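--- STAGE predict ---
source: upstream dedup step, 1 unique chain passed
mode: sequence only
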Amino acid sequence: MEFETILRGGRVYDGSGGRAREVDLGLGAGRILAMGDLSEVQAPRVLELQGAWVLPGFVDVHTHYDLCLDWPELSDHCLRQGITSVIGGNCGLGEADTGAVLEHAQRAQLGVHFGVLAPLGPLRSRVVPRAEGRAASPAERQRLAAEVEAALSAGALGVSWGPYHANALMDSAEIEAALGPAARVGRPWCVHRRREGIGGLEATQEALELARAAGVPLQISHLKAAGKLSWASLEPVLECIDAARREQDLSVDVYPYDASLTYLSAMIPDSLKSDGGLAGVLADPTRRPEAGRGVEGWFERRMGPEAIVLLEPALPEVPRGSTLAEAADALGTDPVEAALRLIAAEANTTGGWAIYREMMDPEQVEAVLDLPYAAVASDAVPEEAGDAISAHPRAFASFTRALARAQRIGEARLADAVRQATRLPAERFGLSARGRIEEGAVADLVVLSSLEEGASYRDPCVYPRGVDYVFVAGQVALAEGEPTGTRAGALLRP
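--- STAGE serialize ---
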């Protein structure tokens, strides 16, 4: 047996949830060829890793990286965190043409493996013009199901939905029809619930009922209770999920932070924006007050303007990084009017990305992280221009943060956190040869000398320290903390 690389003396967490063991690894032809005592074996490349941890490469199943495939730094951005596989197209957002997205990724020659979900919102808009603001007819439901089937045939790993784009216009019959093709091939439905704050329990029950009716596996995205008034609802949500798991194929993902990141327009009720007509609403003096009342309600239910940090303010008077309260001062108005002006000034009336501080209870975030069926994920999103990653620390250090927190608890918890970042998400999306260290598995590996997350809310765009080596399909993609330029990523297909 000829090895290209031997990793000696590392403490190996194999992704199964078992504790670390010191074992050598022999790599060749993109795979793990041998595990055991290889002290007498030679290879062109030998790394002595005594004291370091060797883990499967992290599998980030909740990203929006499909929106920034042309960003030259995308591969290095992932590799510096130990991420070797990513899935885009989440939350029902993205490009309707799955084949085109995968071709785009192929042309980009990524240094990490890439897969995509079929986003229901854009697929629906191919069938029902979004501006019509209506539910689909029975014939249109059949056409939407055909669009979903075509996306899955083109290589989508599942189907996604969220309260954005045209998704919010879909009724239950339409969603159930759209999920039929996924159910037939056993691919998951990934749901950003209709409500994650007040109404979160009802939104969870809705997702469970729809998945049950369609017979499709369910993945609840970035599980949380958003907004202080909703924190008391998380326990009933978890009880609901635990009960459903006795009968349904159900798992979740979570990012390990108490602040969320979404559009500034999230504060506007869905009824005013789901048809894409928010610009007209804000320009109409008879309807604009309704949008303002929605913003006021957000302040009451979730957090005040001093906790909302603007990453892409469209008005020159407002510096990036300002809070909405500071933006109001700069514009000489109140925070509600400031929000409406900023949203109206942005080309797509999203208002751009904003960080919502103190959105979740930190103890509840940790409780979700401890769920054995919760995968660690980043929910990383690009800037509006698609040429950088938005400034939330979750896009830079989610995996290191989750593992460092587990390490503080103890060895057994750390071993299971490794599983939640590797094997669990890989298996969820049918990537059976990834997320694990065993003979025959794809040699996607990360070597860690420490777990130092670096990124913070004050200084979010900081990569972790301690990520020493990353192997993608057996190739050295990062060495001594620096990307090598190797581009060994492949498309992730069912």
